[in-house]
Amino acid sequence: MKPIHGLRVWLIFGLAALATASAPVAAGDAPRISTRSFRADFLKFCDLAVRELNKPLTPFYSRTDDDPTTHHMPFFEDAHAVRALAVAHDMTGRRRYLDTARRWSDLMIVYQRGMNPPGAYYMNHQRAPGQTTGQWNLADSASIGMGVLATATRCKSPAERERYVASARALAKLTMENYVRPGGGISNGLWPEYDGPWWASTAIFGTLAFLLHEETGEARYLDCAKAALRWLVQTDFRDFKPITFQQRPSGILFYTFEFYLAGLKHFPPETPEHQAILKQFDAALEWMAQHQKSRGAAVPDYTEKNVDMAGLPYLMYGFARSNPRYRGLVALADGELDYIGRLLLGRGEPNVSRLMVWEVMTWGMMSYAERLRPGALLRGSRSGETPAR
Prior knowledge:
The protein has one domain (35-383): Alpha/alpha barrel (Glycosyltransferase). It contains twelve helices and no strands. The chain has helices at 35-53, 75-92, 95-113, 138-153, 158-178, 199-216, 219-233, 249-263, 272-291, 312-322, 329-345, 355-372. It is globular and about 50 Å long.
């Protein structure tokens, strides 16, 4: 298996919602779409993801590869689909959704066993199992860990569940012993472009750490995640670097605010961290209001640019669930999710072997999952299943 050369970290993309900086969000004009319609589209995408994830695997080499006979995506992209398939299993009990998540997670563990440094996940690009040189990114690996952990939380057998949890723990051990910096920020593993604490690795591993605490109850994961959040929230997301907001706006919003959404309940409303999160989310909503396609923005469709825009309704629903000031976001997110469904399904079955279509679909699946099973993407097995909206 060859490593990929010359690939830069590009796990950042874009979209967002509405609001004013300090006032509650208004109800908005966007229609509220029926749950039945969203469920039907979500399950179509889940079935497409099952088919795609069960194709023969080849390494990711090119963003233009659209060979329909192989699966050739970076594994952090797949993790979004796996997390959503776990929620689809919650909703339907269909074995194929969990079986696909298990198969993918089993493969991640096999690769992980051969990785150097120990505990790292293979990303399906760059440093491969058995290699001791080359780039390895913690941010990508933390996304993979969330897919493995989502699989764990749906397993009924304690032994099977613990096998997947142990895999995520191994990445956490590597990270907490080597890449957590003084002050709580987290560097991006073996990334040659920048070795300081970085917003993406901090946010994505921080979310994984919150989820590990949710699953295990262990304070060390919560302490690490809270320290990471305190470090990150000191900087406005519009001032992040390297990879600036101007370069990757929707990706910064997705990863940063999923982290904040996961951590919000651990910081009471009166704390500075909680207030800073809401203030920054209001600014994010202002950007979304101007850039979401469903609200008339003159921007390319998301399969052409800012693919992670499809994940932003997830944030809108999540914050609406967490704070009554954002309840008006549900209708606006419904309008955006309806646009994403029409974008992908409006001309028949989408070509998910094209990377940017796969990206929009898998980020979109997370938005559908939050719409249909609020909070399920961030739950652990100890917290039980969440009710449908």
